Amino acid sequence: LSCKVLSSVVTPCYCFVSPQIRVKPDNTGVVTDGVKHSMNPFCEIAVEEAVKLKEKKLIKEVVAVSCGPQQSQETIRTALAMGADRGIHVDVSGKDYENLGPLQVSKILAALAKQEDAQLILLGKQAIDDDCNQTGQMTAALLDWPQGTFASEVSLEGDKINLVREIDGGLEHIKINTPAVITADLRLNTPRYATLPNIMKAKKKKIVTVKPADLGVDVTSRLEVLKVEEPPQRQAGMKVETVEDLVVKLKEAGRV
Amino acid sequence: MHCCWELVLPPVSTVMAGLLKRALRLRTALRCLCDYNMLSRSTATLSPVDFHSPFLTCSSEQVLASTRKLHAGADGSKVSPSAAPERLPFCRVTEEDLAFFRKILAGRTIVDPDLVEPSNVDWLKSVRGSSEVLLRPQTTEEVSQILSYCNSRNLAVNPQGGNTGLVGGSVPVYDEIILSTSLMNKILNFDSISGVLTCQAGCVLENLSFYLEERDYIMPLDLGAKGSCQIGGNVATNAGGLRLLRYGSLHGTVLGLELVLADGQVLDCLSTLRKDNTGYDLKQLFIGSEGTLGVITAVSILCPRKPKSVNVVFLGCETFEQLLKTFQLCKSMLGEILSAFEFLDSECMRLLNTHLKLPNPISDCPFYIVIETSGSDPTHDAQKLHNFLEEAMTSSLVSDGTVATEEAKIKALWSLRERVTEALTHDGFTYKYDISLPVERIYQLVTDMRKHLGNRAKSVVGYGHVGDGNLHLNVTSPSKDPALLAAIEPFVYEWTASCRGSISAEHGLGLKKRNYIYYSKQSQAVALMGNIKAMLDPKGILNPYKTLPDNLKQ
C-alpha cells in the first residue's frame, strides 16, 4: 500500500452552540447567518488517522477534500496544518450548497477518487449538523469498494485492512480489501492540535479549486425539504414541599 | 516624591517599634541619597529580600525579629496568625430563635447536621466551622428580618454564597448562623440596549453567563469557580478573574447594589445608571468588604457585548524574560483585542498531566501562556493574530504554540489554565498565595521560594494573571505540615512587602490572611477601616473573625 494516494474528506459543518439554534421564520431551515463554520469533529478524527498512517509511512500522500463555498478553504487549511499534503476545494455555493446532501457529495468523492487514483477514502462517520451517516456508505457503493464504517481501530496488513467497528452489540473485527472507504468513529484517535510551525507551513501548501461540473457531477437534489420546526417547548416542572401537596397536584392534573 | 514607606507592625513593644521606625527611616533615606538608577540595576540581580545588602544596616536584624514576633504567641509559642481567635461573646442559638426563623422561613431553616455540614467546610477543605443553623432566604425582606432579629439578639451571622472562597472567609469559625443566598437566584431585569443586568445576589455566575450569551452579551468577569460561585459573593470579595485585563474590576462594572445592613436596614443603591455623581459612592465601600459591612442582596452590573470573534492561543516560552517580551509584543500588536493573558509554569503542566490526565497540546516548555483575543470582526482579528504569531515565532520569543478558534478547542485550551487549582488539590495539602507584584518580579518569588524550601515541599508552582501582575503561588505537601508553613510564612509576605506588593491580590483576607493586612496597608488605613466597621456593625455580628486584623478589637 506504500505508494498510493490517500484521500481524506473534511466536511465543513455548522458549529452551533446551543441554545442558539433558531428556525428560519419561513420554516424552510435553520438560521445559518453568522454561525461559525468549522471542521466536523468526526472528519477531524479521519484527518488525524490519515496523517498518522502517513507518519508510519504506510501511505504516500494525504489529500484533504471539502465541498462548499469559499469558507470551506479554511477547513482545508486546518487539515493541512494537521499534516495533510494538499487540498482540493470543490466549489459549491448558494442554493446548491443549501441543498447539497450525502448523495451529491458521494458522487463528487467517487469522481475525485477515480481522478486522483486514490486507494483509501477516510471520512467522518457523520456530520454533526445533519447526522445523516450516509456519505461514506454511498461513496463505497458508487465505487463498488468495500467499506469499514464506525471504525475505532484501523491497521494495514499488506494490501488488506484490519478494522474494528463499533456496533451496538460491541466490537466487530473485519478484514477488507483495498481500495476501500473507511468512516471514523469517536474512539479511533484523539486529533492533534495544529502547532504554530505547522500552521505557518500550511499556508504554503496548495489548494486546488474545482467545480462539480468539471467532475461530471450533477448536484441537483432529489429531496425537497417541506418544513423545519422546533421541537415542542419543554414544560417547566414544579416542586412541592410535602407528599400531601404532591397528591393534590396530581389530582388537579387529572393524573390520579 | 514620597519614597518613605513604613512597615508598621502591631505594637509588640514600643521600644521595638521605635527601633524599627528609625531603622526604616535610615534605609529609605539611604535609598533617596543614592543614585536611583544604580540602585535599581544592582537590585535587579539581588533577591529583594536581601538582608545582607550594603544598604541595610543593623536594622535588618530588628526587622526580622519583629516580624517573627508577629508569628509567635506572647510566650514564644508558635500560634499562626491565620489561626482562629477566641470565640467572641455572641449569644448562642436557642429554641426560641429557631422558632422565629421557622416562622419567617418555613422549610428553609436547616438544622439537620448532615445538611448543614457542607456549608461548614470551605472548598479547599482547610477550615471547618461548627454552625448548627443554615438559613436560606429567598427575598431581601427575609434577609432584613433575619439580620434585624440577629442584631437584637446578638447572634453572629456568616453570609455565604457559593462557598468557593480560598481564604476561609465563607464558612463559620464557631457557631455563627449561616445565611445562604443560594435561593435568591432570580434575574430581575436585563436591558438589552444598555447591557445592564439586575439580579439577586444568589445567581450562579455561569448561569448568568448562559442567560447573557443567549442575548448576545457576556459577564464582565469570568473565573474557574463559575459553576458554583454566586454574583453576590463575587462582589463581596471584589473577584478578579480571567477577564479583568479587558473589562476591568467589579469596582468599575458594578453599577448598583442592594444591601441589608447589620441592623436589618435595607440600603437600596440599586441604580442602573452608568454615571451618577450625587454624593458619596457608597457601593464602593461594600464591594470587596467580604460580608463584614452588609449582606448584598441584589446587584446591577454592566455587561459587555459578546465578542463575534474569540481566539485562544497557547504558547510555550523558554524563559520568563521571553514571556514578558511576548507580553509587550502582544500588547503592541493585539492591544485592542486582547482579553486575557495568563501564564502557567512547567510544574503546573506536570500536575495537569499527572492528576487530571490533560495532555500538553504543544511540546514541553518551561513556561506556557494562554492568550485570548475578543473582537468584532473575525477576519481582522485573524490577520492581527497571524501577524503577531509570525513575529513571535520568527524573533524566537516563543518556541511552540497552537491556536483555537472553535468553541470546543477554546474550552480545552482554557481548561489547562482553569483547572490548575483542581490539579493541585489532588497533589496534596495546598498552601495558596495570591500575590500582586511588579510584573517583572513575578517569577522571581517562585524561584526564590523553591530555593528557600528545598525538598521540604512536594511541589512549588507558579501561575496566574501575569497580565495583571498577579501571581498564584502554590506549595503542596503530602499532608498539613506546620514546619513547612513556618518556612513559607512570613518569608512570602516579607518578600512581597519588600516589593510593595499585595499579599492578597484578589482572594481577599477572609480568616486566613486577616492578620497580614499590615504587610500591604498602613496602620492608619486599617484603623479607619475599623472605625467604619464599628459604625456600620456596632455589635460586630456580620462575618466576625474575618477580614480585619484581631488587634483592632482592642
Automatic annotation (TrEMBL), chain A:
User: Does the keyword Transport feature in the UniProt annotation?
Assistant: yes
> Which InterPro entries does UniProt cross-reference here?
ETF_a/b_N, ETF_b, ETF_beta_N, Rossmann-like_a/b/a_fold
Molecular function in Gene Ontology: electron transfer activity
Name under which the protein is recorded: Electron transfer flavoprotein subunit beta
Q: Name one GO biological process term.
A: amino acid catabolic process
Quote the function comment for this protein. Answer: The electron transfer flavoprotein serves as a specific electron acceptor for several dehydrogenases, including five acyl-CoA dehydrogenases, glutaryl-CoA and sarcosine dehydrogenase. It transfers the electrons to the main mitochondrial respiratory chain via ETF-ubiquinone oxidoreductase (ETF dehydrogenase). Heterodimeric electron transfer flavoprotein that accepts electrons from several mitochondrial dehydrogenases, including acyl-CoA dehydrogenases, glutaryl-CoA and sarcosine dehydrogenase. It transfers the electrons to the main mitochondrial respiratory chain via ETF-ubiquinone oxidoreductase. Required for normal mitochondrial fatty acid oxidation and normal amino acid metabolism. ETFB binds an AMP molecule that probably has a purely structural role.
**Cellular component per GO?**
electron transfer flavoprotein complex; mitochondrial matrix
A UniProt-annotated Pfam family: ETF
* Location relative to the cell: Mitochondrion matrix
Give the main localization category: mitochondrion
For this protein's source organism, the top of the classification is: Eukaryota, Metazoa, Chordata, Craniata, Vertebrata
**What range(s) does the Electron transfer flavoprotein alpha/beta-subunit N-terminal domain occupy?**
27-219
Q: Which family does it belong to?
A: Belongs to the ETF beta-subunit/FixA family.
Q: Which UniProt keywords apply?
A: Electron transport, Mitochondrion, Transport
Lineage, top-rank taxon, reads Eukaryota
Tell me what gene encodes this: ETFB
Q: Subunit details for this protein?
A: Heterodimer composed of ETFA and ETFB. Identified in a complex that contains ETFA, ETFB and ETFRF1. Interacts with ACADM.
UniProtKB/TrEMBL annotation, chain B:
| Catalysis performed (reactions) | (R)-malate + A = oxaloacetate + AH2
The record's principal subcellular location, in a coarse class, is mitochondrion
Recite the UniProt keywords alphabetically.
FAD, Flavoprotein, Metal-binding, Mitochondrion, Oxidoreductase, Transit peptide, Zinc
**Where does the UniProt annotation locate this protein?**
Mitochondrion
- Give GO MF terms, alphabetically: (R)-2-hydroxyglutarate dehydrogenase activity; FAD binding; metal ion binding
Q: Which InterPro entries match?
A: FAD-bd_oxidored_4_C (IPR004113), FAD-bd_PCMH (IPR016166), FAD-bd_PCMH-like_sf (IPR036318), FAD-bd_PCMH_sub1 (IPR016167), FAD-bd_PCMH_sub2 (IPR016169), FAD-linked_Oxase-like_C (IPR016164), FAD-oxidored/transferase_4 (IPR051264), Oxid_FAD_bind_N (IPR006094)
Q: Would you say which domain of life the source belongs to? A: Eukaryota
Q: Name one GO cellular component term.
A: mitochondrion
Q: Name one Pfam family in it.
A: FAD-oxidase_C
- Per UniProt, the enzyme's principal EC class comes to oxidoreductase
Which cofactors is this protein said to need? FAD
EC assignment: the record states 1.1.99.39
Domain FAD-binding PCMH-type, by residue range, is 126-306
Entry-linked Gene3D superfamilies: 3.30.465.10, 3.30.70.2190, 3.30.70.2740, Uridine Diphospho-n-acetylenolpyruvylglucosamine Reductase, domain 2, Vanillyl-alcohol Oxidase, Chain A, domain 4
Q: Which Gene Ontology biological process is one annotated for this entry? A: malate metabolic process
Name the protein family: Belongs to the FAD-binding oxidoreductase/transferase type 4 family.
The UniProt function text for this chain reads: Catalyzes the oxidation of D-2-hydroxyglutarate (D-2-HG) to alpha-ketoglutarate. Also catalyzes the oxidation of other D-2-hydroxyacids, such as D-malate (D-MAL) and D-lactate (D-LAC). Exhibits high activities towards D-2-HG and D-MAL but a very weak activity towards D-LAC.
Protein name stated in the entry: D-2-hydroxyglutarate dehydrogenase, mitochondrial
The top of its lineage is: Eukaryota, Metazoa, Chordata, Craniata, Vertebrata
Gene that specifies this protein: D2HGDH
